[in-house]
Specification:
- This protein has 672 residues and is mainly beta.
- It is 10% helix and 29% strand.
- β26 and β27 form a beta hairpin.
Length: 672
Amino acid sequence: MANFRFLDGPLAPPGASLLLDMKNRILIKTLGALALGVFFSCASDDTVVPFAQDRNVAAIDIPEIDSLVLDSVNRGIYPDSLSGWELRWAKPISEGGAVALYVLGDSMPDERADKLANGSGDFDFSGAGLRAPLARLTAQDTVWRIPSALLGGQGKRIRTDTVFWFSVWLRYQDGAVGSPVRAYLFLGDNIPPQPGRVDTIVGQTTFAFDFDRPRDPTSRYDDSANGELSFIRSIWWRGRQLSDSSGGRAETTYVARDSVRDTSIHRFHLSLHGLEYDSPHLVILQMADDTGNVATLGPWPVNTRDATIPASAQNPRLSVDNHTRATFRWKAATDSFRSQTPQYSTSPNHGIRSYRVLLSEGGVAPWIAVDSLDLFANDTSNFHRGDSWPSIRTLSRFHWGRDEWEWSWPNIAPGDSFRLAMIARDRSGNPTRDTLFVAGRTSPIEGITCPPDKGLRPVKGTGQIGDFCIEQFEHRIDGKPATQVTWKQAAAACVEDGGFLCSEMQWEQACQGDPDDASARLQYGAREIGMDPDTLGWLLEACNMGGGPASVLRSSDLATHDLRCVSGWGVRDLPGHLSEWTLDTWTLRPDTIPPSRRDSWSGAYQGKSDQHDSISYGVLHGGSWVDQGNPNALLEQATCKGRTYAVRKGSLIPDSLGKSSAWGYRCCHRPL
């Protein structure tokens, strides 16, 4: 349900008079206060309190005596003597020297109390312009039962049209130093209608409400809330502030009176038509009962939509470089805003809010949104040809060259076909009439032939390792990632499959971004991990990094359908999903091991550890699904060189006998 705002004061006729001083008259009240059919006000309505506060009564209230009140309500008349209500208050903090306590039948202001004479004798109330007190009590009294005659007389009908005011005032020996404390009793209906669920719809030149019938309690004792409604209406004006309603610009529309009176109608629809499109408006929804109580919802800030379809981007082009990098170029889309037909403007990107790029693998796979750009989030005025978006020196796949857009994606698997699409929308969310499509194929890695039917990807060797083939995904058994294996079990499983557990060097090489430059820093999923500020968010979304506890790791294949989590060699899920065993013995300083002590093809080191003098401890690489509660650790483990130190024996030594549903492996093979 929306928040409520209620307009105090008498109802205004249709038109702007209600809105002229709205910002000064809107009050926010809680639903709890509105639920009271008899409203009690305890606070002083004066801005200056000249008397000592510690000599004032406090916590004034007018509760009913249930048996008498309910009987009176049922019979519609007052009891014979007492009305059924009591005036109650709390004693002042300082009672010393109090002479008398007076209950007055009006809201005695402080300035009238000042006119009363000091001393211990009776006061001249008439001389101060006040009526005689209703009761003169001692300072020890805290309750006064309200007589029936005061509220309309014995045996008479209950008065629902009169507000009865009371003041409680203490007089001290040293003078009138207590401040009058006020309350009022109203037995009529002062509860505004209670709105139900409201749904709103924004159009190009319209704004519509769908809302439940308001419920109207008629008194404190009305449980049905089926009071009569007088009207339901909406008032709106163009602008962003309440004061914009001045000058006669406000307009009003009503729900048909017959519909308001027909209690069989439980849901209403109210449409505002003729709003200027692509413009800000403020809208309120009002409802009133038959006694004049008004409830107001809003104001809602409404921005109407653009009424035109933006002109499509033009001249789509695709280029593929270095086996894996695809570059998509197009002329900017544009929107003429207020023309009834799409038009091009001399200003590129005029009125365009966003560009969104989608990728499909193999020409038949489902589309996945891989990137988007919000033009309104940044200023293009300082852009120069070749700069990155959204600002100079900010890593981005979007580049604006003053005459066309360029979007680059570095990690499409070598030798794969793919499709790219681009959708442009204006600032009202209207898509262009046409979606741009391009299709292409990356170049395969030449000179490496992998064993068939094992889901392998070729990787060129460099430095201490030769060419090799690696599983595109973590090793699978019966179609699901193999987990809960120790380091030795993983190595044995790969040998049984005809290959070898990948070495650290091979794992890191497969993780690199550019097949033609294996020394390049990782650009996994088109993000340079550790450099780009939104790397962590990218990994969490695309690569299943740190998604939850290992105990609830999904048993199905988590990441095979996310085209974003792929290296430049076409290897998937290296930074996330599962941490993976590698063949090397765990050492404290792997970079210090001489080449002569490593395997000549894989670069694996299987000698003794420089820390624990054993060959029985393997190395995990890559971050996992497990949430360790440490974002910095996630980023470190996601890099190609980063090891995962989650498996420990004692405080330092990785434990190769450990196993987890968050740890797996992948096998490497020699090329044919």
